[in-house]
Amino acid sequence: MLNFQIPELFVNYFDNKMRITPVNIAVTRVVLGTYFLWKGLSIDAAALTEWPVVRNDFYMYLYPPEPFGSIVVVERYVLVLSSIAFLVGYRTKVAAFLMALTMTHLAGLKMLYLFTIGETQQMVIASLLVMLFGLYAEQDRISVDEYRRIRRDSISDPSAIEGPYPMTALKWSLVTMGVLYFSAVWGRLVGGSLLEWLAPGSLSRWTLIFQEYFNRELFVGQWLIQSDLMLLASTVTTTIVEVGFLIAILAGMSLTPFFVVLLGFHAIVAIATGIFFFDAFFFLMLFFAYDRMLGFIWSSESSHVIYNPTATLAVTIATLAAHLDDNQEHDFTAVSDTKIAHDGGLAARIDGQTVEGFDAVQRLFSSIPYLVPVGWLLTLPVVSTVGRICFDRVSQIDSPGNSAENQL
């Protein structure tokens, strides 16, 4: 008897509120930050202040007074700089607020002049998602803010740097996406256009309209409009998935089939009509199970790690390792709780062998799946030589007179 099971490629955070590592929140911060950076770099802010035609004067209140038109250009630079800060997790709360504020205003100005409904709506959705990340920024443990916290507070309790970790921002971001997809169907139902939208002729007509608008005759679109059955199957499947997505989220069901269909839906729309909702791919990939990806490739080694709670560098390395220890195979002990003195405030015992200082960093990183590439990089001759010098130098500056022996 076959026991086939679809791999859980995407996470239902409404059901799985806690994760063993904070990898997912860190990676999704980078994904969302990259989206904002791309938008900030691609917007021609100067053109928005000089556009000769107003297509939607309902949004005129968003336009700054004439003497201050250049503020739009400043907004673009604020968006770019705050996106970079958000990418690395520096002052995440402030960065998220500035990103949401500037992105929403720039989206409104684009709506004023260009009337690009789909693109501007995606920008507003992104602003809502980034605000959720800002509200729960303290849950992001792999960031510059976390390093600043470590420098401020010495960690002498090893259990303080181990999981599980809450994913509240991703939980409510997922619910938000579910509501948005559901509202598309709800809008058609309330507006009385649902049955018309489901009709094969409607999708066929819109496919031809967009192909003519973009001046492209796409093979998939031409093939699709030849079959009423395929057109009907496409509209019905889309409606079922858009409604079922929110229901599956709230019911704690597996979401992988829904994400696969939604990604495929956006891809088919792009190749059939020329409408490319590229932004949606960023949003949907926020919920990919990144913490499971590398676990299938590399296995972990168990170790016992000892660190000096007064040495910032040692605590930072131990904290990072503890956050990424998804199999809970590494034990962490503050040096003040032991009688062991070691170089640089860090030592690790792996496979019966005790290593100290930079060698401990190499072995520790190589024993954790997420850090295997970094561990391999640290073994290269040039990197190893330079890294060892830097580690020793930073350790001396970091904790002068605070060796493990002095702590005993």
What does this structure look like?
Helices cover 60% and strands 6% of the residues. It has 408 residues and is mostly helical. It has 3 domains: 1-14 and 178-296, no CATH class; 18-135; 301-407, no CATH class. A 4-stranded mixed beta sheet has the order 4-3-5-6, covered by helices on one side. Strands 1-2 form a two-stranded antiparallel ribbon. Mean pLDDT is 78; it is low at 1-5, 337-342 and 400-408.
Strand content: 5-15%
Describe the strand arrangement of the main beta sheet, using strand numbers.
4-3-5-6
Number of helical stretches of at least 4 residues = 19
| Secondary-structure content class | mainly alpha
Characteristic terms for this protein:
disordered C terminus, single chain, disordered N terminus, 19 helices, 408 residues, 3 domains, globular, four-stranded mixed beta sheet, mainly alpha, two-stranded antiparallel sheet
Tell me briefly what this model is.
The protein has 19 helices and 6 strands. With 408 residues, it is mainly alpha-helical. The strands form 2 sheets. It has a 4-stranded mixed β-sheet, with helices on one face. Strands 1-2 form a two-stranded antiparallel sheet.
SSE arrangement:
Blueprint: E1 18-19, H1 23-42, H2 45-48, H3 71-88, H4 92-113, H5 117-135, H6 144-152, E2 165-166, H7 168-191, H8 194-198, H9 200-213, H10 219-224, H11 228-251, H12 256-273, H13 278-284, H14 290-293, E3 303-307, H15 312-323, E4 330-334, E5 346-350, E6 353-356, H16 357-366, H17 372-378, H18 381-398, H19 404-407
